[in-house]
Amino acid sequence: MKINDLYTTILERKANPTAASYTAHLFDAGADEIIKKVGEEAIEVIIAANNQGKERLIEEISDLTYHVLVLMALHHITPDDILGELEKRHK
User: Which string of DSSP letters, residue by residue, matches 62-90?
Assistant: First the structure.
């Protein structure tokens, strides 16, 4: 799965929520809950990076990436927006 594919799925869950969708639940809970989840996942990445092994770190980075994408969707920021900013910084 590519980041843009995951982002598109997140946007679809936002536009067409279902009761079984965790993503829809996050949007329904609102910005504060999404922000809280990003913070929790960032802390879990830091903890995992401290000798919990590569697999655990991959899991936590994946969780953080997902929640950041949800936060981006909330604020109408696309992966291309982020890549554009990174490209500006690289020059």
Answer: HHHHHHHHHHHHHTT--HHHHHHHHHHHH
2-61 pLDDT, tens digit each:
999 999 999 999 999 999 999 999 999 999 999 999 999 999 999 999 999 999 999 999
63 residue type, one letter: D
Per-residue DSSP letters for 10-50?
HHHHHHS--TT-HHHHHHHH-HHHHHHHHHHHHHHHHHHHT
Q: Name the nearest CA neighbour of 26 among 44, 41, 4.
A: 41
Domain 3-15+22-90 grouped into CATH 1.10.287.1080: yes
In eight-state DSSP terms, residue 91 is: -
Those residues whose C-beta lies under 8 Å from the C-beta of residue 33, and which sit 6 or more positions away, are: 26
